[in-house]
Fold:
Amino acid sequence: NAGVTQTPKFRVLKTGQSMTLLCAQDMNHEYMYWYRQDPGMGLRLIHYSVGEGTTAKGEVPDGYNVSRLKKQNFLLGLESAAPSQTSVYFCASSYISGNEQFFGPGTRLTVL
Amino acid sequence: GENVEQHPSTLSVQEGDSAVIKCTYSDSASNYFPWYKQELGKRPQLIIDIRSNVGEKKDQRIAVTLNKTAKHFSLHITETQPEDSAVYFCAAPGVNFNKFYFGSGTKLNVKP
Structure:
């Protein structure tokens, strides 16, 4: 099993550009999450999904959109990138709530 | 939402010594408390977790204690080794248990 994978691993954007980050899991997990990690601030939840076709806002959702059209995939979109969105983005999944989260390898995004 | 505070932000110990990291949380309904280890450039990985029906859990050199009355839980690492050097994060669930709030992290440095 590949576990949780993320595409791409690195990306550099210019302000105003758009992009989509892809997260895929092969563990048949219901729950999926998108976090951003900034120095000294830990992991902050952007959006999450409790099942196929559902999404909900986390702590820092502004400037991001998500979709969960298939159970195994969770997409994170930036419509108009800003320098404040420079960060490392982690996707995670879990079988049920209140259980271990399995993280992907991360995507390092730089917005110039 | 849940407020998770983690201390200290950095911790330096001599190899063989013990290390203790403490987290406090605000939501008294929280019932699951994981600890994650993140090595430099890697993804966070679960190292130990505890549920609210027990006060302590051990796994070889690591242990977690929970004090529900005081709303704090701690990670204890005994006989530290250089490979324990990493950033450690605690987490606690939000009100609906669908999302987690992470502490800001503790950078542990084990000096040989």
Remarks:
- The mean pLDDT of chain B is 93.
- Chain B touches chain A at residues 1, 6, 9, 31-32, 34, 42-46, 49, 89, 93, 97-105 (CB under 8 Å).
